[in-house]
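Sorry to interrupt, but I need a hand with the structure work. Can you supply me with one protein entry, sequence and fold together? No commentary is needed, just the two lines. Leave the record below and I will have a look.
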Amino acid sequence: MKLLMKEWKLCIHPTAYIMLMCAALILVPGYPYGVSCFYMGLAIFFVCLTARENHDATYTLMLPVSRADAVKGRILFCTLLEVIDLAVMGLFILIKYAIGNTPNPAGMDAGLALIGSGMIIFAIFNMIFFPVYYKDINKPGKAFGFAAVAVFLWIIIETVSTYAVPFFRDVLDQPDPRNMSDKALFTLAGLALFLSGTAKSIQMSTKKFEEVDLKL
């Protein structure tokens, strides 16, 4: 908990608050809503960039914590931002239904399945960004480049699938409350991937960070 507070006080970047509000893009007709998750990934890049500029690693490793604790604190803090982003997305989905939902021609419709897709996006981001980042914490841009490519590949695949894959087109990409049981299973699968992917990311990142010869 103390490391989470340290991350919030010393490493948070203003873009994190701004990117949370990008969830409001769900109200825009004809927009690939998964991109709002990418913006949170961009905010996480700025968190790591701020940490580098503030020499946060030097400060953190002077505390009575292990490298594994430092890695876990940073990733759990960023995961918390992702969870808040998903909650804000859920709020704007409810607002969209309240003011009048319309089909989205640019990808997944706003609904429960979109939250599951967001979890998959964050799982992909976490599994790629953090292990590459902790290989060299002075180059967060390189890690973000790899993660951004993977995230946009998933968004493209998902968008194409809403036209070409029957399960996406006829089941997931339908307005709620249609097919809610299937959408709930898809969202639970996304949650499982999000949790397991983040846990795997912590494991891989810790190994990378413990092996690296830091030049602080």
Observations:
- The mean pLDDT is 94.
- The two ends are 25 Å apart (CA to CA).
- The first helix runs from residue 2 to 10.
- Residues 7 and 107 are 34 Å apart (CA to CA).
